[in-house]
């Protein structure tokens, strides 16, 4: 709760949180705000925005409602972004914890694996993975996580290395706690904050990667995403630029929101550490 | 009508355009300077094998047809829709077992050797029949080619082969390559498959991968004083969005095969100095088809197939997806093949209520969510329009309670999934009608085709009556009777719906006004361009 209050005290945190809260609400209530399939052909093709009250943001090449697409796209973008970041963090934490705590040969092996993943550009990895396995939401989540888990793994390991020599860990060891219990109950809570601060960047990157994959036609074609909307709009960019502009704005707002929240979180957490 | 408003280019505009075209400044200047001139054309693919005798596809013909010529080319006004090229006359025997070609005299290859009937015999027996994708079908029963003299080639068949089929196939299957360069070599790996040597109006000068193909004037062309142009450069512009901008900047002067997206045509047609041409693709009709996997028990039911046909709004497809640059289909033969086309077939109007009634009748009632059953839909990735139609079809099917899940894949994966693994329920395909139903159309519905043959019936459909008609037409010599059999074929396909024909379309050429004689024949983009000229 203290962290939350500190977070809201920073301007970045407040703005970021507000942006994301709006977005989360839109995503959560998408079926209420715009009932039915957002890919449904709802009206005349290429209605210009603000000209027809039924389609405030106009319609696309096939007559699909752009606003409905944006609302439901928020769902996909946020869901994929959060799921991919969660998967990446979980993988990173496990690997980092194991490597840092166990040390020795396991550490070497795991860290060389992390090196291998860090060398390959994350987007390329996702691209290759999706084109081999085939596009669907779970595959896209996994593909993005695959390119993003290496950073939290490295960070976790570094934190673990510094924490594991502390007195309270030694005390736990002397008290006869099982190593796994020490790792999970004593070390993990203390390495978590900086890794969580990193999570904002991972979410933002995951949302962008998802959009880029969809833009290249490697997203799930059965759900609407902002990336696929931009890709569709690109074909008519000269005559109907709004089809790319609106989802583009949505994407920018989301990523800026996540980034600001991350900044705020970092400041709030470092404030706590300074105060402690 | 979409026609550009011709306005006189002012000196300033021309100057600005020259300054703007930084990529190929010297090329742009050459256009203004000479009467022959250099034509710069957008190309969007770089085929690995450029030999049209082996790969009879539009991507190859686009470049290669200027260098290597067929025996005859399609024509708007010629007899039987043909104009002579390397052959000057052709005649079939009464029994359908032979066709005699009289060849043009005084033709030389680009390397100076004379063109003779031996080249035709070699091309037919060693390349068209065993190696070419379409020649395999057309020349399946070709036994020998006799060459009584240098200007005569007699094709002898083991079974009666209709002259009508050979005639209709000539522009596509009969590219003649030089025997003296290919004989005794590995034909598929011959360097001349890229460094082409032919008899055509242009010589193959150079190919820079990723950049351009350059063809230069053949001064010894048999059709002198043609060609009119000095040079043709095919600039590789893989990004379709880039072709329109390149035309406006005068970096290129012509973009064929709808390289400029349909959505951009309305705008670009109003740009001064640019014209939009819809003619010149009459013999290259693409068909938008829903392929059906009849192994699915629901789809094996004719009522379900009829319901799907009724659920598709062809007017929406033509007006919104193709922006009017297409026509609704009635059956497997397109309207602009008047020799065969039959309008008197069962048709399926857009009628959602009827589609729902048919599905109810078939015993697939809607469940609580309004869904009857689910299908896997694979739209072919080759064109924007096939993908968009996939999106539309999913919605059209949802309206009648069929839940279609779209599966996207790249070209190779799509072809493997549909034509080899049969991992689809519905697929969207763009087959080509090539002037005669026997060339590449009957194979779409005929049974007994092994798995792995692309663009064929891989939906497990088998109809003995239809197979019998196709087999009979393949050996019917009499043109009138053969045509009648293909009318029957259209009726059977439209009635039993082995696949659903939705629309048919040709491509669009966009060119600068300075390019003359565009679309002078029904296969213009893939013809030899000997008459094409540039205004000085």
TrEMBL record, chain A:
ABC transmembrane type-1 domain boundaries: 74-262
Alphabetically ordered keywords of this record: Cell membrane, Membrane, Peptide transport, Protein transport, Transmembrane, Transmembrane helix, Transport
Keyword match Hydrolase: no
One Pfam family per UniProt: BPD_transp_1
GO biological process, one term: protein transport
Compartment list: Cell membrane
Protein name per Swiss-Prot or TrEMBL: Peptide/nickel transport system permease protein
Lineage start: Bacteria, Pseudomonadati, Pseudomonadota, Alphaproteobacteria, Hyphomicrobiales
Automatic annotation (TrEMBL), chain B:
Keyword Membrane in record: no
SUPFAM superfamilies: Periplasmic binding protein-like II
One of the record's GO cellular component terms: ATP-binding cassette (ABC) transporter complex
Protein's cellular compartments: Periplasm
Top-level lineage group: Bacteria
GO biological process: peptide transport
Annotated signal peptide: 1-28
Residue span, Solute-binding protein family domain: 82-429
GO molecular function, one term: peptide transmembrane transporter activity
Keywords per UniProt: Signal
PROSITE patterns given in the database record: TAT
Entry keyword annotation includes Signal: yes
Entry's family note: Belongs to the bacterial solute-binding protein 5 family.
The name this protein goes by in its record: Peptide/nickel transport system substrate-binding protein
Organism: Shinella fusca
């Amino acid at each position: 709760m203290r962290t939350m209050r500190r977070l809201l005290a920073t301007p970045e945190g407040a703005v970021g949180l507000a942006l994301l809260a709006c977005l989360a609400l839109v995503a959560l209530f998408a079926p209420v705000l715009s009932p039915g399939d957002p890919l449904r052909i709802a009206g005349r093709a290429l209605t210009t925005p603000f000209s027809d009250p039924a389609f405030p943001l106009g319609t696309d090449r096939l007559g699909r409602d752009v606003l409905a697409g944006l609302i439901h796209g928020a769902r996909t973008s946020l869901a994929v972004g959060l799921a991919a970041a969660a998967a990446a963090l979980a993988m990173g934490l496990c690997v980092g914890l194991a490597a840092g705590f166990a040390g020795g040969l396991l550490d070497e092996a795991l860290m060389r694996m992390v090196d291998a993943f860090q060398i390959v550009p994350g987007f390329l990895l996702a691209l290759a993975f999706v084109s081999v396995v085939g596009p669907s939401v779970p595959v896209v989540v996994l593909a993005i996580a695959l390119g993003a888990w290496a950073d939290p793994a490295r960070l976790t390991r570094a934190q673990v290395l510094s924490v594991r020599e502390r007195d309270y860990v030694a005390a736990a060891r002397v008290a006869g706690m099982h190593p796994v219990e020490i790792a999970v109950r004593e070390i993990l809570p203390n390495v978590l904050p900086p890794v969580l601060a990193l999570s904002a960047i991972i979410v933002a990157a995951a949302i962008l990667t998802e959009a880029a994959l969809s833009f290249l036609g490697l997203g799930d074609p059965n759900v609407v995403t902002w990336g696929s909307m931009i890709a569709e709009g690109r074909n008519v960019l000269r005559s109907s630029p709004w089809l790319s502009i609106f989802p583009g704005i949505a994407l920018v707002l989301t990523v800026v929101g996540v980034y600001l929240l991350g900044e705020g979180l970092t400041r709030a957490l470092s404030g706590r550490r300074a105060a402690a | 009508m979409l026609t550009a408003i011709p306005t006189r280019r002012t000196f300033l505009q021309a100057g600005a355009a020259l300054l703007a075209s930084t990529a190929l400044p010297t090329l742009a200047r050459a256009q203004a300077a000479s009467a022959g001139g250099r034509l710069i054309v957008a190309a969007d693919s770089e085929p690995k094998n450029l030999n049209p005798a082996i790969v009879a596809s539009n991507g190859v013909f686009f470049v290669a047809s200027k260098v290597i010529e067929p025996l005859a080319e399609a024509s708007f006004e010629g007899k039987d829709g043909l104009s002579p090229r390397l052959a000057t006359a052709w005649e079939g025997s009464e029994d359908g077992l032979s066709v005699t070609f009289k060849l043009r005299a005084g033709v030389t290859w680009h390397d100076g050797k004379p063109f003779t009937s031996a080249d035709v015999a070699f091309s037919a027996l060693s390349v068209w029949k065993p190696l070419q994708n379409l020649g395999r079908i057309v020349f399946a029963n070709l036994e020998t080619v006799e060459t009584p003299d240098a200007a005569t080639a007699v094709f002898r068949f083991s079974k009666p082969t209709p002259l009508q089929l050979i005639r209709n196939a000539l522009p596509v299957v009969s590219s003649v390559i030089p025997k003296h360069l290919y004989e005794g070599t590995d034909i598929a790996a011959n360097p001349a498959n890229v460094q082409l040597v032919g008899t055509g109006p242009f010589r193959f000068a150079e190919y820079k991968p990723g950049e351009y193909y350059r063809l230069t004037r053949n001064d010894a062309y048999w059709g002198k004083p043609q060609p009119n142009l000095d040079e043709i450069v095919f600039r590789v512009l893989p990004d379709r969005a880039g072709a329109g901008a390149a035309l406006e900047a005068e970096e290129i002067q012509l973009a064929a095969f709808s390289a400029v997206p349909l959505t951009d045509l309305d705008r670009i047609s109003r740009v001064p100095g640019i014209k939009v041409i819809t003619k010149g693709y009459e013999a290259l009709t693409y068909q938008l088809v829903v392929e059906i996997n009849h192994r699915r028990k629901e789809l094996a039911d004719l009522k379900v197939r009829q319901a799907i046909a009724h659920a598709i709004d062809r007017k929406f497809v033509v007006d919104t997806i193709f922006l009017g640059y297409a026509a609704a289909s009635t059956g497997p033969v397109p309207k602009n093949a008047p020799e065969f086309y039959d309008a008197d077939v069962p048709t399926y109007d857009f009628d959602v209520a009827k589609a729902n009634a048919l599905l109810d009748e078939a015993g697939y009632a809607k469940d609580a969510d309004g869904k009857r059953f689910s299908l896997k839909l694979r739209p072919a990735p080759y064109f924007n329009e096939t993908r968009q139609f996939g999106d539309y079809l999913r919605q059209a099917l949802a309206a009648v309670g069929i839940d279609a899940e779209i599966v996207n894949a790249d070209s190779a994966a799509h072809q493997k999934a549909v034509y080899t693994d049969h991992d689809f329920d519905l697929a969207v395909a763009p087959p080509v009608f090539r002037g005669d139903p026997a060339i590449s159309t009957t194979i779409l519905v005929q049974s007994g085709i092994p798995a792995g043959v692309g663009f064929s019936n891989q939906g497990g459909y088998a109809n003995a009556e239809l197979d019998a008609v196709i087999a009979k037409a393949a050996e019917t010599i009499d043109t009138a009777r053969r045509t009648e059999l293909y009318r029957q074929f259209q009726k059977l396909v439209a009635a039993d719906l082995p696949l659903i024909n939705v629309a048919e379309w040709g491509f669009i050429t966009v060119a600068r006004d300075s390019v003359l004689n565009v679309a002078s024949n029904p296969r213009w983009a893939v013809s030899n361009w000997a008459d094409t000229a540039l205004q000085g």
